[in-house]
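Lecture notes, structural biology module. Today: joint structure prediction for complexes of two components.
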Amino acid sequence: MSLTNRSKVVSNKKFSFLESLYLPAIFHGMFITLSHLFKKKTTVRYPEVKRPFSPVYRGLHVLKRDDEGRERCTACGLCAVACPAEAITMVAGERQPGEEKLYREEKYAKVYEINMLRCIFCGFCEEACPKEAIFLTDRLVPSQTEREDFIFGKDKLVEPVDQRVDVSKRQSQKVLDFKKDKNQRHNS
Amino acid sequence: MQVTIDNITIEVPEGTTILQAARMIGGDVVPPAMCYFSKLKGSGGKCRTCLVRVAKSSEKDPRPMPKLVASCSTPVQHGMVVENSTSQEVLDTRKSIVEFLLINHPLDCPVCDQAGECDLQNLSYEHGIEATRYEEGRREFPQIDIGENIKLHMNRCILCYRCVYAINQLTDGRVHGVLYRGDASEISTFIKNSVDNEFSGNVIDVCPVGALTDRTFRFKSRVWFLKPMDAHRDCPTCSGKTVLWMHGNEIYRVTSRKDQYAEVEEFICNECRFEKKDVNDWVVEGPRKIDKKSVISANHYEMLKKAAVINPVKKVIVKESEK
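The predicted structure, tokenised, for the full assembly:
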């Protein structure tokens, strides 16, 4: 009894004269190769051509700023404790007088690092974040040649003030409504 | 004296309060308490989270009590029947009490150092609701440093008076208390005096919320990234039995040991708490047992239990004797 129908009985019978020439088999094989030249290609020429992404694709992270350009992250550590791969580490700092325009709350992340080799892009960090600070975007993590280059610090994660990353498609209406609720202190 | 709490009957000595009797039974029967602290005389009766329904006052007077009573300050009577989690009225009231406690609470848990071991956080998670209906502005106070090592965030305070009792009863001389009345009342020292005596650091441990926090630990780490270890040292002023919150070989902070009701087992002195941050100062006994449901246990893959369950040396000896 066989589990599949693809088993073949191996025989030891002698090749005929035509088979021992190998030529028909070679031409048959080359015809298959040649025919692939004219078939539609399955790959695209990345990065010139990009495939369409799902709006909820989970790629490279971004640390968001609020409408006034202040960093939203307060280094609460919930993303790091939610992370199943333990890819996130952070060091918190206290906001000094005069830095109110840089950081939203009295505590901020002095160091925030994600090890992209450890990250499995599950999106638990964005789900855990109480401050709407971290999001996974539809961008890809660029390839690197050194392992150290895959540890992304704040320089690569925080969005620049003039090049905002749009994540509105990733938030449900419920979340957007919640963010407008002035009864929640962190929205005020 | 016999008392029945949630259909469980127990014999207790005279003068026991309902809360103490419930703690003798243990488990889900125990009402939560924010202000009551068994080691501080006079505490309790302020936060109202421990309200229970007395269905039968005593054997002599079987009528129910007209209103819910605070279990921390109501003594047991013979034949009393108490309902805690079996009464819907109690659960509904407790939910409202949590909402009351949160009216002026800033809910800045992502910033607060107490998050992860906060009684108010646990209480609102278990009994409360996610959102607040309160629309008016909250009370706001500037942050004050009382002494070199303690930070007072009056915004987070729920006015449980535990710290006031702790200072009054552990040390001589009253240095801080509650100023003003009603909505305006605040914990304070007399004109920004500092609280500095040997046992003043214990106000951090008795505080059920993040109103009084350790300045030497301020924003250093989150409690769930640290490993709590039981440790002791020869201390001339206190028992020296503490919990070290460590990351690798580094001690981030030192606290006293707390039991399952978040009450301090033995008060420790300021020298142990704030100055001994070197591993060589301490004799480390082993990992502290933390409730599995607590966020502090998160991401610790190894079981938190006392070391050396299997003794490898013994194993080798057995093998050699077999040969």
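Point to remember: The domain at 119-131+139-217 of chain B is CATH 3.30.70.20 (Alpha-Beta Plaits).
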